[in-house]
């Protein structure tokens, strides 16, 4: 592409800090590719909500839609009631833009310390469904605040929704050397949803006979993530289980400061969104302490998505080299210093 | 009590092997207490289902009800369709006998190897709600097997159900030295259920002003379980999150071979049930390879529940001593050998 129209939702707290560095690295990575980036900033998140009471208006959404991709930092501050920005902004974007593939690599880079004593060679990717499951917002409560309150949450799963994400996961597994797909669910308890997932994986496997499939209950999957994470190649799972497993995956591969993610609309009917897994971290915001690496790795995923794999590899290589040398560093760098160093490495 | 009427559901696979050792240690622990145990075996599980198609009949349930407690091994084999025994037997027992407190300690005994490089001093307990949440079996599907299938699962949460388990968790926290309670949920996404849990914890906190409360989203909780598990004292959480967190807790404290659990009816309107967290492990069944320690520790929880805390402590002490010496053992002992050694230690 000759130009990349990027919607930027830096958000709150450390979101603005890490996005600034992500953009710096992005510009550097595009250098010489013939693609130039044009960014539009969207003032969304806690600041906007405090000022106006708005989370994401129809106008915001329409304006975001015309972009090629979205870079998101982090959303939220302790002054906003829980759920307001999550449901009204972050999940609204994922649902409205049909980000049904929430892609989250779990990779332990050389030089990075894992809390595991013997992590082994960890390099998997979680394909988390992004538009269904318990995240649909299909819950409600009666008699709220009384002793007779009942609060329900409904997990909605459709053949349409499960099949498309499972097919995407198979395609990813087929393109990887180990060609292994692990379905994670809890079909012995959530029998209806679980059996839909299981049947779908079995059916789609016929289209990808080279891919080996196995299954783990979500509870067992957390065990393997700490006892034998190298057993995983591609994991496909529902929205909630994916949320849980990817934070755990981040923890064992060096922490959420390094964990990238992509909310992908594979049909390209709307822009995909790239964001670090971490939140706005109000406790360290404004201090230049945040690690921008997760955002920079999300930028690499963005570059892949827009058809610039060489630029994506350059960013990843820069991150890998930076991480490999961190152990021997004399001091902890600031957010801006890490960004500058990564950009310099990308420049070569 | 002068006699303890115990319903024994040894179940399938390694279930029968570990229960045999659990009973051996139980008899030894009761020696000299003035309490004698009378056991009734219940033929429930995969074997029975294959033979008769039955999971748990009304007669079975009525017969179990008249006991003081239940010792359960493990249920299931690969020949039974997923969900049949879980919903029809295990969860049916938990729900019918109102086991609303599912208690699962996460304790790293000295001498036990954790997969974590620096686990620290891990000693917490998870109070998992046992009769509500996504486990209620309130799901369904339409157009099954067609491209238009919709499969729903409903998480049901009531003020009644949440309050009683939260109060139990507070009481446990108040009785522990650190007096700390962590609520784990996902109230930024599951807003209705999550806010019920949150409001309930806030309200019950007023009755336990000495207990410090904090909150973690379930995804963040998995991070802390691998980066800083010693931060936890008592965790209270819903049925599904508790399922996930307790397997992870087991993993970081030496594996499910050591993880005990108690399904408690605190109102004592029905017998409580004690079971290892692990399953029937068909891959190692019948080989004497299973570790009976989780079952023996569940027996200690049983002894506490029936009012024999000294006997419970004796069992725990025996386990702790056994675990402390495992590192220097020359060979791996069989299931029966571990049971015999533990019984000998209890005998003193
Ligand atoms: C902030 C929250 C709604 C979000 C989620 O649960 O998906 C976050 O945890 C994530 O993983 O991106
Ligand atoms: C077997 C299964 C139904 C059960 C559960 O999910 O509760 C098990 O995983 C457990 O934790 O006891």
From TrEMBL, chains A, B:
Belongs to the isocitrate and isopropylmalate dehydrogenases family. LeuB type 2 subfamily. NAD(+) binds at residues 279-291. Catalyzes the oxidation of 3-carboxy-2-hydroxy-4-methylpentanoate (3-isopropylmalate) to 3-carboxy-4-methyl-2-oxopentanoate. The product decarboxylates to 4-methyl-2 oxopentanoate. It is found in: Cytoplasm. NCBIfam families: PRK03437.1. GO terms for molecular function: 3-isopropylmalate dehydrogenase activity. Its EC number is 1.1.1.85. Binds 1 Mg(2+) or Mn(2+) ion per subunit. This is 3-isopropylmalate dehydrogenase. Substrate binds at residues 94, 104, 128, 219. Its main location: cytoplasm. InterPro entries: ICDH/IPMDH (IPR050501), IsoCit/isopropylmalate_DH_CS (IPR019818), IsoPropMal-DH-like_dom (IPR024084), LeuB_actb (IPR023698). It is an enzyme of class 1 (oxidoreductase). The record marks 135, 186 as: Important for catalysis. Pfam families: Iso_dh. It comes from the Bacteria. PANTHER family: D-MALATE DEHYDROGENASE [DECARBOXYLATING] (PTHR43275:SF1). Coiled coil: none annotated. Residues 5-342 form the Isopropylmalate dehydrogenase-like domain. It catalyses: (2R,3S)-3-isopropylmalate + NAD(+) = 4-methyl-2-oxopentanoate + CO2 + NADH. The keyword Amino-acid biosynthesis applies. Homodimer. Its cofactor is Mn(2+); Mg(2+). Keywords: Amino-acid biosynthesis, Branched-chain amino acid biosynthesis, Cytoplasm, Leucine biosynthesis, Magnesium, Manganese, Metal-binding, NAD, Oxidoreductase.
């Amino acid at each position: 592409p000759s130009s990349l129209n990027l919607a930027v939702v830096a958000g709150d707290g450390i979101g603005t800090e890490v996005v600034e560095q992500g953009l710096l690295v992005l510009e550097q990575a595009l250098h010489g590719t013939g693609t130039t980036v044009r960014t539009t900033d969207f003032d969304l998140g806690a600041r906007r909500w405090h000022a106006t009471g708005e989370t994401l208006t129809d106008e915001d959404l329409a304006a975001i839609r015309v972009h090629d991709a979205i870079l998101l930092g982090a959303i939220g501050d302790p002054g906003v009631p829980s759920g307001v920005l999550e449901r009204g902004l972050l999940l609204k974007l994922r649902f409205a833009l049909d980000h049904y593939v929430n892609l989250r690599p779990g990779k332990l880079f050389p030089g990075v310390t894992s809390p595991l004593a013997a992590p082994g060679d960890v390099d998997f990717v979680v394909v988390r469904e992004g538009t269904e499951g318990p995240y649909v917002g299909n819950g409600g409560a009666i008699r709220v605040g009384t002793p007779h309150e009942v609060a329900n949450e409904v997990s909605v799963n459709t053949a349409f929704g499960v099949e498309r994400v499972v097919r995407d996961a198979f395609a990813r597994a087929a393109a990887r050397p180990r060609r292994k797909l692990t379905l994670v669910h809890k079909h012995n308890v959530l029998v209806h949803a679980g059996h839909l997932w299981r049947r779908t994986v079995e059916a789609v496997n016929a289209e990808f006979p080279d891919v080996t499939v196995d299954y783990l209950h979500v509870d067992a999957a957390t065990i393997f993530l700490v006892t034998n994470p190298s057993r995983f190649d591609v994991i496909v799972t529902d929205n909630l289980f994916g949320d849980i497993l990817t934070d755990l995956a981040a923890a064992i591969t060096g922490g959420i400061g390094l964990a990238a993610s992509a909310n992908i609309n594979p049909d390209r009917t709307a822009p995909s969104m790239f964001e670090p897994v971490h939140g706005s971290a109000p406790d360290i915001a404004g201090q230049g302490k945040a690690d921008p690496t997760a955002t920079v790795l999300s930028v690499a995923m963005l570059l892949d998505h827009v058809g610039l794999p060489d630029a994506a590899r350059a960013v990843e290589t820069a991150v890998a080299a930076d991480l490999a040398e961190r152990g021997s560093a004399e001091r902890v760098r600031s957010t801006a210093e890490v960004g500058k160093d990564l950009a310099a490495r990308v420049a070569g």
